[in-house]
Amino acid sequence: MPLITVLILSLLGLVTANCQCGYQLTINNSSTPSIFTDLIETDFLHLTNISKDTDWRRQEFPVTAAAGRGPYGMNFTIQNVISNPILNATNWTGPGEFGGDPGLQLIVDSGIPENGYVQVAEMDSAREDMLWGTYRTAMKLSLVPGTCSAFFWEIDMEFLSSQFIPENNTYPVNLVLQSEQSVRAGYNAAATGNYVVANLPFDPTDGFHEYRIDFVPGNVLYYADGYLLAKMNTTAVPTSPGHMILTQWSNGNPLWSFGPPTSEATITVSYVKAYFNSSDTVRQKDWALRCTDSSAPGAICMIPDQLGPPDPSTNVSSGNSSASTYFFSNEKNMTVNQTIYHKNGITGINELNAYSSSLLTLMLLSSLVAILL
Ligand SMILES: *[C@@H]1O[C@H](CO)[C@@H](O)[C@H](O)[C@H]1NC(C)=O
Ligand SMILES: *[C@@H]1O[C@H](CO)[C@@H](O)[C@H](O)[C@H]1NC(C)=O
Ligand SMILES: *[C@@H]1O[C@H](CO)[C@@H](O)[C@H](O)[C@H]1NC(C)=O
Ligand SMILES: *[C@@H]1O[C@H](CO)[C@@H](O)[C@H](O)[C@H]1NC(C)=O
Ligand SMILES: *[C@@H]1O[C@H](CO)[C@@H](O)[C@H](O)[C@H]1NC(C)=O
Ligand SMILES: *[C@@H]1O[C@H](CO)[C@@H](O)[C@H](O)[C@H]1NC(C)=O
Ligand SMILES: *[C@@H]1O[C@H](CO)[C@@H](O)[C@H](O)[C@H]1NC(C)=O
Ligand SMILES: *[C@@H]1O[C@H](CO)[C@@H](O)[C@H](O)[C@H]1NC(C)=O
Ligand SMILES: *[C@@H]1O[C@H](CO)[C@@H](O)[C@H](O)[C@H]1NC(C)=O
Ligand SMILES: *[C@@H]1O[C@H](CO)[C@@H](O)[C@H](O)[C@H]1NC(C)=O
Ligand SMILES: *[C@@H]1O[C@H](CO)[C@@H](O)[C@H](O)[C@H]1NC(C)=O
Ligand SMILES: *[C@@H]1O[C@H](CO)[C@@H](O)[C@H](O)[C@H]1NC(C)=O
C-alpha cells in the first residue's frame, strides 16, 4: 500500500468516532442482528441530583380514586423521587449519601392517607420518540406489601409486592402489553389479553437485578439478569413510539396493587440503559449524516448482555463491584452525537467539524503530494 494511502487512512481512522452507525444486538437468535441508532444511559449510582438531569422528568399529578378505580386516589409527587448517590463518588460500592442502598429512590408513603390520596412516585424519560429497542433497568424492589412497581414503555414489567412470598421463594413478575393510559386508569392487567405471569429466578428484594425488554416489530422478549422470562409474538405488540416510565404506586385496589403499604415502601434504581430507534425525523437525519459507512471499523458497536445481578453491595471487600457495568457513555468516543445528559462523547457535537477539518488536511496533503510529484 502506498505510504500516502496509509497516511490518509490513519488520518480518517483518527477522526472516525465509534458507534456512529449504532448499537447492535441479536434478538431472539435472529439470523440478522438488530441495529439501534440512539441511546440513553443514566448511572443513578453517581447522579448527584435528579432535578438536574434533563433526560428524566419526575412526575407531579394527582389521580382521583374514581379515575384510578381504587379505594384511594394517588398523588404522584416529585418529593418521592430522590437521588441517593454513592457516598464515595469514586467507587461503585458502599452506602448512599443518605445511608442505605445507593441509587434513585421511588417511594410510596405508608398508611391510610388523611386526604384520600396515597403519595406515590413516577419518573419518565424526557424523550418520547423511542421505538424499537432494548430497554434495561437495574432495580432493587421492596418487600413491603401493597405496591405496584413497574418499568415500562407501553410494554410493561409490573411487580406486585403483595405477590412476593419469601417463605416459598415465589417472586412473580407480570408481563403485560397495555397502554400507559390503562395503567394510570388502574386497569387490572390480568383482564387484558397479552398477559404472562413469570417467576423470577431470584429474590428481587435481595439486591439489584436487571430487568429488560427487547422490542422489535411484532416481537417482545422479557429478561431478568439475562435470563429469558417470556416471549410475545402477537398483533398487540405496539408499533408507535413511546417513553420510558419508572414508577411505584398504590391505590388500594384489591385486584392489583393492594395497599396502601403499612410502612414506607422504597424501590431503588441503579441504572437505565436504552438503545433504540427514534421516530423523530430530526434524529433519523442526524443518524444518516453521521453514519457514512456502516462497514467501517467500530461504526457499529455490540451491546453487551448483563448476565447476573449488577449489585453495588457485592464484592466491597474484594475491591471491585458487579455494579460497575458497561456504559458506552463512560467511554470517550462511543456516544458521539447522542443526547445523553452531560455525556455525548468527547468529540461531541463537534465530530462533524473534526471530520471536515480532516478532509481539509487531506486536501492540503494531496496538493502537497501533487506539487512534489
Ligand atoms: C437462543 O439460543 C440459545 C441456544 O439454543 C438458547 O439457550 C436461548 O434461549 C435462545 N434465545 C432465545 C431468545 O430464544
Ligand atoms: C433502526 O434504524 C436503522 C436506521 O434507519 C435501521 O438500519 C435499522 O434496521 C433499524 N432497526 C430496526 C430494529 O428496525
Ligand atoms: C437538587 O437541585 C435542586 C435544584 O437546583 C435543589 O433545589 C435541591 O436542593 C437539590 N437537591 C439536593 C439533594 O441537593
Ligand atoms: C401532592 O403533593 C404535593 C407536594 O408534596 C402537595 O403540595 C399536594 O398537596 C399533594 N396533593 C395531594 C392531593 O395529596
Ligand atoms: C473513596 O474510595 C477510594 C477508593 O476507591 C479511596 O481511595 C478514598 O479514600 C475514599 N474516600 C473516602 C472519603 O472515603
Ligand atoms: C407458594 O405459596 C402460594 C400461596 O400460598 C401457593 O399458591 C403456591 O403454590 C406456593 N408455591 C410453592 C412452590 O410452594
Ligand atoms: C411475529 O414475528 C415475526 C418476525 O419474527 C413477524 O414477522 C410477525 O409479524 C409477528 N407476528 C405477529 C402476529 O405480530
Ligand atoms: C422467535 O423465534 C421463533 C423461531 O424463529 C419464532 O417462532 C418466534 O415468533 C420469534 N419471536 C418471539 C417473540 O418468540
Ligand atoms: C468505597 O468507599 C467506601 C467509603 O469511602 C470505602 O469504605 C470502601 O472501601 C470503598 N470501596 C472500594 C472498593 O474502594
Ligand atoms: C467477586 O469478586 C471475586 C474475585 O474478584 C469474583 O471471583 C466474583 O465473581 C465476584 N462476585 C461478584 C458477584 O461480582
Ligand atoms: C476510542 O477510544 C478508545 C479508548 O477509550 C480507544 O481505544 C479507541 O481506539 C478510540 N477509537 C477511535 C476510533 O478513536
Ligand atoms: C448531531 O449532529 C447534527 C449534525 O449532523 C447536529 O445538527 C446535531 O445538533 C447533533 N446532535 C447532538 C445531540 O449532538
Automatic annotation (TrEMBL):
Record-linked CDD domains: Glyco_hydrolase_16 (cd00413)
**Leader sequence segment:** 1-17
Q: Which UniProt keywords apply?
A: Signal
Question: Its GO biological process terms?
Answer: carbohydrate metabolic process
Task: State the superkingdom.
Answer: Eukaryota
- An MF annotation (GO) of this entry: hydrolase activity, hydrolyzing O-glycosyl compounds
Query: Mind telling me what this protein is named?
Result: Lichenase
